[in-house]
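Help!! Second protein's tokens look totally different from the first
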Amino acid sequence: MAAGNKLKSLRNRCNVTVRQVEQASGRIAEAKGDKRFRISNGWLAQLENGISEPSICKLFTLSVIYHADFRELARLYNVDLDEIQKYESIAYPDVTQLRPDIHDSFTTRPVAQSSTTLTPHLAPANNRAMEDERNLQYGYIGLADYTMYPLIRPGALVEIDISQNKLQIAAAHNEFERPIFFIELRDGYACGWCQLQGNQLLIIPHPSSPSTVRRFTYPREAEIVGRVVGYHTRCVDAEPVQAMPRS
């Protein structure tokens, strides 16, 4: 059913005439001191016939008159306010980000994007204890993020234990034992090996990576989200690597 027809059905269920909608909207517009909230009966007829689409002000008015959830009315026009975070990562695909929009198993591949992201609500595929699950968040390594390449390639999904958010000095016999951390920056996220030098946090790339060491004032400019305890990554590049940018 088209959006206009659904609005008409909703009006009929409320037993409200187009004239009553016009009168009620006039009172709302007067109370708001803004005529954009007013709905004429002629415009409402165009809306219900699919000729017009409502502005955000008029959609607010309809939600009040029809006792309807504004979010549900917005969804009639393919506007889902719950998808804002999801489309932030799509708008900036090269950036490393948190990913709150992934709800499938940990082995599910996310939509390819360039930014590293974090996902606090992803359900892991194994039977991890509930206490452990509450400590997990998930991140996406952006397509432009080569910090841990080739150990963790761009486009990887990483599992983060947020209870392990303190840097500790520990001997590592190989690169697999060396703790990898997910870091929140002022303008985004990063993922890599870390080292503290006074109040300076160093994000250290893999030795085979084209990226360079980055330095931030800790914790003012960078905070540890948690330790990466798992990752889903390709073992080969999706495309030949050519002139990867250094960061």
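Here's the second one for comparison:
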Amino acid sequence: MKLETFTYSAHEGWSVESLPALDSDHTLVVVFGSADWADGHEAFEHLAAAFPQSHIVGCSTAGEIFGTHLADSSLSVAAAQFEHGTSVASAAARVSSQEDSFDAGQALARQLEQPSLRAVLLFSDGLNVNGSELVRGLNSVLSSHVVVTGGLAGDGSRFKRTWVVNNGTPQTNLVVAAGLYGDQVFVGHGSKGGWDNFGPERRITRSQGNILFELDGRPALELYKEYLGELADGLPATGLLFPLALRSDSSDEKNLVRTILAVDEATQSLTFAGDVPQGALARLMRANFDRLIDGASEAAELAGGSDATATDDEDTLAIAISCVGRRLVLGQRAEEEIEATLDVLPRRTRQIGFYSYGEIAPYMHGQCDLHNQTMTLTTIREQAAAA
């Protein structure tokens, strides 16, 4: 696999003198960029012109990751040309509202499904999608042996408008995916949080999809505001500092975390990035700085740091997707978590990524889940077939 990573900034232009000559129908180009560029930018035209045969996917962000650096108003780009039989395909599905999420997941999976499919890299509109239903649609079609990772596009802490890249241009109300095929591509994944539990565990007594109405029979927004105190005036953005941990019952060891997308004063409800099932147990969480950074290291260890078959002769692409809530909590320390991932990954790893409204990866193994408030790592490398 030939791999190049590079950036674009509004002030300095491209970080390379010319875009790498890696265009082919087996080239994957991944791009993450400023949400402000939803209506297009000349940088996308440059990419489309340089990679007309390639499969270009990506999305808007709440911050762009490049190596160990975090930026805004930029593009972070990786171009990977596979050389050992790995093939690439891309697909897109429209999501006009959250009700389209399950069907969009199924549509993407059906476009990409083949016996040789090994992995799917997925990027979704971050506001008009129920992430839980989206992955449920994918999982209803794809084998559990197919690794599905990715994330929901971001718009800083504004929650107004997000985009994904389709056919080389930013578009709204869309989900895009790239499929990787063949026996020579190796895709690792890891997802970890690092938040502390806060307050008692409560039963979800009324919800509908990703909308939470009541906890222990009390209006959800009213109860949530009690915990936030003076921070309640800044909802929904301040809700990112206090995510919700869910589990199906008291014996369930699998905790999924949910982030607030919107509040409704009239119904006293909270809308989350994924489902909050009625009857499930829920508990607020709050930040522990050191544990958040340790969580990033653990995600990298799962994704590729412990890969005994990787060698220092192979380039590895790492895609780091961390939740916008983690960035808001870590503040000036945010770069520490993206430094922590590269400290663990193989020496010839190049990292790009973004801060998201939701992360998609298997919990540990098997089919994918929607996560919030995690650092989720995907590693991609290609290995020549044994002689």
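Reply: Different proteins will give different token patterns, so don't panic. The chain has two domains: 2-192+290-382, 196-286.
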